[in-house]
Write a structure and sequence with these properties.
The complex is a heterodimer of chains A (166) and B (435).
Chain A lengths: L4 H11 L9 H12 L4 H11 L3 H8 L13 E6 L2 H5 L2 H11 L6 E6 L11 E3 L2 E3 L4 H12 L11 H4 L3
Parallel strand pairs in A: 1-2
Antiparallel strand pairs in A: 1-3, 3-4
Helix pairs in contact in A: 2-3, 3-4, 6-7
Chain B lengths: L11 H5 L7 H5 L5 H7 L3 H12 L11 H6 L9 E6 L8 H8 L1 H15 L3 E6 L4 H16 L15 E6 L9 H8 L23 E5 H13 L1 H4 L3 E2 L2 E2 L1 E8 L5 E6 L4 H6 L13 E5 L8 E2 L2 H4 L5 H8 L7 E6 L4 H15 L5 H18 L7 H12 L15 H27 L1
Parallel strand pairs in B: 1-2, 1-4, 2-3, 7-11
Antiparallel strand pairs in B: 5-6, 7-8, 9-10, 9-11
The chains are: A alpha+beta (166), B alpha/beta (435).
């Protein structure tokens, strides 16, 4: 079983939202990734069973989307924008600084991403999908360090949290 | 000096009530859901045919298609039909929908309820960009609060009208902002566009009649119902009625979202001290991209800066679009080839791979622009780029033709054409210097 019992109940609630179960592939993949840190083969098999398609179809769909990670990633995924507003306001410098500083740190995965819709306060990044804006290279590293120390936390992205209340 | 200011309609609450604009209490204390009550007392068909049409409302997502006309394409007697909200904001330098979702989610839900009632839909889907974690939390909380208060769900406000709203998260694919790709994604497939016809109005989500509207479009709807369509149409200019949110970014002193009456000039938007506040360090505008990454560019010339924010005027006069309302401003220190390269890299990354001219062409454009912008260009490279671009968008004219199913491929050519139009000498000189 890939999903925990608790998340399996959430998965059933997600399935019930859609007229056709295949629509639940993306929200279920978010749920699985929030649970395991990345989209495991086991999770894709279980999602396939839940929505009534083959595991290959789940892989076919999810591999299209950059948010789904098919290999293990660090506990902290840091997504740095370098698109055209961040480009001219220091985004590439933030990316370079973080890549150097956390090279070899298994807890942190740095990735370059496309526009995050935070251009009013460029340059911007997300840590586990929490926005951090108006960055400097050193300031960005301080933020990542605060997550490492547990002083900052992220809310997660999965559709599953919907059913869970709060 | 210009003293142009904002005209806050859809951003009024989130600017005035910075402490609670996203809560049900804050929303209803500032007139929220009054328009829904008013709409539910109207004939459903009259909302589109009279209010929305009279308002002249056009889609705020990019294409500017008249909203009332879009609704009118739904075939009669074919149910169920769906409303799908495009909240997959990903056009580079556009950041208005994120603000509307995070800071006034009930306004969007009210617009969704009114639109659903108007078109006879009982199940609406919001396709929200996957990366918007806070937006999702706020929108989902708003949805549940609205259900509990009777503004969504069964028998809304005793009217007999039922509406279920599902919030669906994307997962990082720009192409899903294209409406048919969005529908494919919502059905659990790879987000690849579909050939039209059939249009979504006839065969959309689950092959049922479907309307796809942008977040800002729907957020405007309660205000049209509240003011009356004719009153709304008094704002704006020509066929560009009302207000729009412009996301101004780049080398300006006050980047941010500004809701202004259409018809204002780019100069006012960029230079007014109440708006983007002019160029940093007193520098001048070298060029700006007026409608998101997909648009062709304009320059700091008086002719361009004094152009009005009028969707049809800028299209017909300069071949550019107001698109998603993103205005990226670059000062005279900027290397235009570097900006063009980064845009090309974006389009190459986001091409869905379905159509050959786009899948292959965006990659070649990126490679050639990389070498131009990184000191390895050849003097004939700009002509090579135009040749590649011509295979994606034959003729290289705006509005663009296309050899592809959707406009992503042709959009990747906009920057190339802009280099040719305004910076040909600079680009070739750059290449000669390194040849």
């Amino acid at each position: 079983m890939a999903f925990t019992n608790e998340n399996l109940a959430v998965a059933q609630e997600i399935l019930a939202r859609y007229p056709k179960p295949k629509s639940a592939i993306l929200p279920l993949a978010h749920l699985a990734q929030d649970q395991d840190g990345y989209l495991t083969q086991d999770a894709m098999r279980e999602i396939a069973e839940l929505v009534g398609v083959t595991p290959a179809e789940v892989l076919g769909t999810t591999s299209f989307y950059t948010m789904f990670k098919r290999d293990p990633v660090g506990r902290l995924v840091v997504s740095v924008c370098t698109n055209v507003t961040c480009l001219v306001l220091g985004g590439p410098e933030v990316l370079e600084h973080l890549e150097r500083r956390y090279a070899g740190d298994t807890e942190v995965t740095i990735e370059e991403v496309e526009c995050l819709a935070a251009c009013g306060n460029a340059p911007a990044m997300q840590v586990n999908y929490e926005f951090h804006e108006s960055l400097t290279p050193e300031g960005a590293a301080e933020i990542v360090d605060a997550y490492k120390r547990g002083e900052l936390t992220a809310r997660g992205v999965s559709g599953g949290q919907v059913g869970g209340g709060a | 000096m210009s003293n142009a200011t904002e005209t806050r309609i859809i951003t009024k609450r989130l600017r005035d009530r910075t402490e609670d604009s996203w809560t049900l209490a804050g929303f209803t204390a500032s007139g929220g859901y009054d328009a829904l009550r008013k709409a539910l007392a109207m004939e459903p068909a009259a909302i589109g045919a009279e209010q929305v049409a009279a308002a002249g409302l056009r889609g705020r997502g990019g294409a500017g298609f008249p909203t009332g006309t879009k609704w009118s394409f739904l075939p009669e007697g074919n149910y169920p039909r769906y409303l799908v909200v495009n909240g997959d904001e990903g056009e580079p330098s556009t950041f208005k929908d994120r603000m509307l979702v995070e800071r006034d989610p009930h306004q969007l839900l009210e617009g969704i309820a009114i639109a659903s009632y108007a078109i006879g839909c009982n199940k609406a889907f919001i396709y929200l960009r996957g990366e918007f974690a806070l937006g999702y939390e706020r929108l989902e909380a708003a949805r549940r609060d609205a259900m509990a208060a009777g503004f969504l769900g069964d028998n809304i406000l005793g009217s007999g009208f039922d509406l279920d709203v599902v919030i669906h998260r994307g997962a990082g694919a720009y192409i899903c902002g294209e409406e048919t790709a969005l529908l494919s994604s919502l059905e659990g497939d790879r987000g690849q566009p579909r050939i039209r016809p059939p249009f979504p109005a006839v065969a959309g989500l689950y092959a049922k009649p479907t309307v796809v509207n942008n977040v800002e479009t729907l957020a405007t709807l309660p205000h049209i119902v509240a003011m009356g369509g004719e009153e709304y149409a008094k704002l704006g200019v020509n066929r560009s009625t009302g207000t729009r949110i412009f996301s101004v970014s780049g080398h300006v002193n006050r980047p941010g979202n500004y809701e202004v009456e259409l018809g204002m000039t780019f100069r006012d938007l960029i230079f007014s001290p109440e708006l983007a506040g002019g160029i940093r360090d007193g520098r001048s505008v070298k060029f700006f991209i007026p409608g998101g990454a997909s648009s062709q560019w304009l320059t700091g010339s008086d002719e361009h800066l004094d152009a009005p924010l009028d969707m049809d005027y800028v299209q017909q006069t300069f071949g550019v679009m107001l698109g998603s309302g993103a205005v990226m401003v670059y000062d005279d220190t900027t290397n235009p080839a570097l900006v063009a390269w980064r845009l090309a890299k974006f389009f190459a990354h986001e091409s869905c791979g379905k159509c050959t001219p786009c899948r292959e062409g965006t990659g070649w454009i990126e490679k050639i622009l990389y070498r131009i912008s990184h000191g390895e260009g050849r003097p004939q490279d700009l002509d090579l780029l135009l040749d590649v671009g011509d295979n994606i968008s034959p003729g290289l004219n705006a509005p663009f033709s296309q050899t592809t199913i959707c406009p992503l491929g042709p959009s990747s050519v906009s920057a190339v054409v802009s280099l040719q139009n305004y910076f040909r000498d600079e680009v070739i000189a750059m290449c000669r210097a390194t040849a």
